[in-house]
Amino acid sequence: MRLHHVGIAVEDLEAAKARYRLLGFQVEAEGEVAAQGVRVALLKGEGEALLELLAPLGPDTPVGRFLEKRGPGLHHLAFATERLEEELARLRAEGARLIDEVPRPGFGGHRVAFLHPSFGLGVLWELVEA
Fold first, then answer.
1. Can you give the pTM of this predicted structure?
2. CB proximity list for 120: less than 8 A, separation 6 or greater
3. pLDDT score, position 101
């Protein structure tokens, strides 16, 4: 697997996009993942660097609760795989605590699955089929 993107929880998507533009990141795509209650902006930097900015659609959403509890900042690390189900099975066998037993739709039409932060050494992991 390779690092796909870094997810960052933000309160104000427009302000966050402006801040990362100062570092040369440009908006590659934007949209909503209604099922997760989040607005997303995917930013591309030099080379393969991708940041996914996440702003909640409301306070009672996963990112809304994250912001209330922890404030803005690192939300997750996403790793790309071509074999999502196989990787989920392998990691489950290694003792991973899965949030998603089966893949779900993610931003940009990708299938994704999340692993609990307790397995990611305090960091939420996302597997992205890419």
1. 0.92
2. 77
3. 94
